[in-house]
Amino acid sequence: MAVNRMGPPCPECGCLVTDVTRTNRSSEGHFLRRRDCPSCGARFHTIQHAEIVAPEGAVTWQSRRISIHWRALRSQLIQLIA
């Protein structure tokens, strides 16, 4: 069993330490995880959505700020919505 120390809190008790008991990947690329709370014993599910791979130049750093050029990501965002 994997332990996620930075994961979402347990919906029952709010504990941040949860055990991942099962991980499945959907056909769209999302990760579906079943989690158990060792503190109260609650079971719950989380979904991690597929990531977008940004083309070169779509994301730029300026000092500590990030600039995102949404037009460069438009086609990938449309594929996620469709």
What does this structure look like?
The protein starts with a strand and ends with a helix. It has one helix spanning 70-81; strands at residues 2-4, 18-25, 31-36, 43-48, 59-62, 65-68. With 82 residues, the protein is mainly beta. Strands 1-2-3-4 form a four-stranded antiparallel beta sheet, with no helix packed on it. The chain has two domains: 1-50, N-terminal domain of TfIIb; 52-82, no CATH class. The longest helix is centred in the last third of the chain and has 12 residues, at 70-81.
User: Could you name the CATH class of the largest domain?
Assistant: Mainly Beta
Secondary-structure element order, N to C: EEEEEEH
Number of helices: 1
Overall morphology: elongated
**Averaging pLDDT over every residue, what do you get?**
81
What CATH architecture label of the largest domain applies?
Single Sheet
CATH fold-level label of the largest domain: N-terminal domain of TfIIb
Low-confidence stretches: none
Largest sheet, spatial ordering of strands = 1-2-3-4
Helix fraction, binned, reads 10-25%
Biggest sheet statistics = 4 strands, antiparallel
**Global Rg:** 17 Å
Structural class: mainly beta
Write down how many β-strands occur, each being a DSSP E stretch of 2 or more residues: 6
